[in-house]
């Protein structure tokens, strides 16, 4: 029997594989263990601060600008100069760290590919470890994929997108790697293994002396940014590379973080390449932050777009903050996927994408996200035709008008109606996403949109909010109050609809029944769970005893 060679204090409980062993080397695990030991206390404190903030919000409070850090917001300082290799980020594609996806995304014509260990990936042992193998091969430019069904071999083009990697959020553990008797912190595993194996090749072959580049998710406060900055500095010292080589873009996707954007950039000022509008998670966070506020019942999620006042202000303030500090202000996701069997519907969807991206570039964003390669060309056309031949708008779109944005602007209730169809769509999407996630897929095409965990989270917390406070559905001119009994009937009916849509064979083979029970439970629990995937994670953990040994 083969074993992983592990350093003292480290145990691997995931399946042994000879390819995984090339990633899980003794030295790489020692590096990850060093990060865990150095920073676990800081991470625990940050998570405790999140819990204390949650208590304040649940007691009637609201997030706002911190008076103690006013001097950071009002002082004139800049982040480090943007590396030339990533000056142009006009369109970025995102997706999980799957082999075929990585090749297609790098070949897509986008400027950046964000390879995702977070919301677009179901974090099973197999997915995570194969992801690291795939990224190593991509950076070495040896990655290929043979699609046997199509008898086609995929490989990289001569010109490819710049690679960014998104590790998991602070809250997620890695239960297959035990360090000093406790599960490793998931993001430190993701970052540590990737950085250790790839920093040298990335800097020389892809980053023109800079990198690796990262996206950082789910941040709520600048103290969390400070931890990441310290991690980057320790990694740079260990690797013997220049301070400021590692660069990261922070997703502003929680409501508390929008009040901390200057502070987050300040903490990461030597390692920052900007902020991104993570708008789906931002809506999820708005509901979660105000979960104890019955006067903040949101309309159907499809109505909560970037034209809503609080969303527009969030985007405008992000642009102002980033450009004042000399870094990129990245726009939000276009989740549409091609509708191949209906050209008219496809063109209508593309026109919505163009309008959204035109709004972003005219507002001052330097780039934006797309979920599918088919969107890259039309989005790129919108941005390049509106940026006067420049790689970005950092120097040209100051947006000083956004200085007038207030705390009240950033939390203003969105307008709209709530409908039974909104409740049904939330339920249908949430259950189907969770069923896919439980079977190893974290990026799921549903109803011509590419859904990830963020959309499922909005669906879950909005259902919970409506049920908890007996929201009145008024979207169809008939007022219906949401009750646990109504929701139970909706779940039953939507399960039947899912069965019809996916077919009996797939429904029976999949984990739809299990997903339905989990989703329904999370929508009706007295206390809102912080994250859908945190509760479901134990259902995808598979331990293989005695796969590691100290040799």
What features would you describe in this structure?
- Helix 15 (420-438) crosses helix 16.
- By secondary structure, this protein is α/β, with parallel strands linked by helices.
- The protein contains 20 helices and 19 strands.
- Strand 15 and strand 16 (449-451) form a beta hairpin.
- An 8-stranded parallel beta barrel has the order 3-4-7-10-11-12-13-14, surrounded by 7 helices.
- The longest helix is centred in the N-terminal third of the chain and has 33 residues, at 26-58.
- The relative contact order is 0.13.
- Pathway: Carbohydrate metabolism; glyoxylate cycle; (S)-malate from isocitrate: step 2/2.
- It is found in: Glyoxysome.
Give the structure's gist in a few sentences.
With 551 residues, this protein is of the alpha/beta class. It has helices spanning 18-23, 26-58, 70-74, 99-106, 125-139, 186-205, 222-239, 255-258, 261-267, 279-289, 309-325, 343-363, 376-384, 407-411, 420-438, 453-468, 484-502, 504-509, 512-524, 532-536, and strands at 4-5, 10-12, 91-96, 112-116, 144-147, 152-155, 162-166, 173-179, 182-185, 213-216, 247-252, 272-277, 329-334, 367-370, 444-446, 449-451, 472-473, 480-481, 548-549. The chain is 47% helix and 14% strand.
């Amino acid at each position: 029997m083969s074993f992983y060679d592990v350093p003292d204090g480290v145990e691997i409980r995931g399946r042994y594989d000879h390819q995984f062993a090339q990633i899980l080397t003794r030295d790489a695990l020692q590096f990850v263990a060093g990060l865990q030991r150095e920073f676990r206390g800081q991470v625990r404190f940050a998570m405790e601060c999140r819990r204390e903030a949650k208590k304040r919000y649940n007691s009637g409070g609201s997030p706002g600008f911190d008076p103690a850090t006013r001097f950071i917001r009002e002082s004139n300082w800049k982040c480090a100069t943007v590396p030339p290799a990533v000056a142009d980020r006009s369109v970025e594609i995102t997706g999980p760290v799957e082999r075929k996806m990585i090749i297609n995304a790098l070949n897509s014509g986008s400027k950046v590919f964000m390879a995702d260990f977070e919301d677009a990936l179901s974090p099973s042992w197999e997915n995570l470890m194969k992801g690291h193998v795939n990224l190593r091969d991509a950076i070495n430019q040896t990655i290929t994929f043979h699609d046997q069904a199509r008898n086609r071999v995929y490989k990289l083009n001569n010109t490819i997108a710049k690679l960014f990697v998104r590790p998991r959020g602070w809250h997620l553990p890695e239960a297959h790697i035990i360090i000093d008797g406790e599960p490793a912190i998931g993001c430190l595993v993701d970052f540590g293994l990737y950085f250790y194996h790839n920093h040298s090749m990335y800097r020389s072959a892809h980053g023109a002396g800079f990198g690796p580049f990262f996206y950082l998710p789910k941040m709520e406060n600048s103290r969390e940014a400070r931890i990441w900055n310290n991690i980057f500095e320790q990694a740079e010292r260990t690797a013997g590379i220049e301070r400021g080589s590692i660069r990261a873009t922070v997703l502003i996707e929680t409501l508390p973080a929008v009040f901390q954007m200057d502070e987050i950039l300040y903490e990461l000022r030597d390692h920052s390449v900007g902020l991104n509008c993570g708008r789906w998670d931002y809506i999820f966070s708005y509901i979660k932050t105000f979960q104890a506020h019955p006067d903040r019942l949101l309309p159907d999620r499809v109505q909560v777009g970037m034209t809503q006042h609080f969303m527009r202000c969030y985007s405008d303030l992000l642009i102002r903050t980033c450009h004042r500090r000399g870094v990129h202000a990245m726009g939000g996701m276009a989740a549409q996927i091609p509708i191949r069997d209906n050209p008219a519907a496809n063109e209508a969807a593309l026109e919505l994408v163009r309008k959204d991206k035109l709004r972003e570039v005219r507002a001052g964003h330097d780039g934006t996200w797309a979920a599918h390669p088919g969107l890259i060309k039309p989005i790129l056309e919108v941005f390049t035709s509106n940026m006067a031949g420049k790689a970005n708008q950092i120097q040209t779109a100051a947006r000083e008008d956004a200085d007038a944005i207030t705390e009240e602007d950033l939390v203003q209730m969105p307008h709209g109606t709530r409908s039974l169809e909104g409740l049904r769509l939330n339920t249908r999407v949430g259950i189907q996403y969770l069923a896919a996630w439980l079977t190893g897929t974290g990026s799921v095409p549903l109803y011509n949109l590419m859904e990830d965990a963020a959309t499922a989270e909005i669906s879950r917390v909005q259902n919970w909010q409506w049920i908890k406070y007996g929201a009145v559905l008024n979207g169809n001119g008939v007022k219906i109050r949401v009750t646990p009994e109504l929701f139970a009937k909706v779940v039953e009916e939507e399960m039947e609809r899912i069965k019809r849509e996916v077919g009996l064979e797939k429904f029976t083979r999949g984990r739809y029944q299990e997903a339905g029970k989990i989703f329904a439970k999370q929508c009706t629990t007295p206390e809102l769970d912080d994250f859908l995937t945190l509760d479901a994670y134990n259902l995808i953990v598979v331990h293989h005893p005695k796969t590691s040994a100290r040799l």
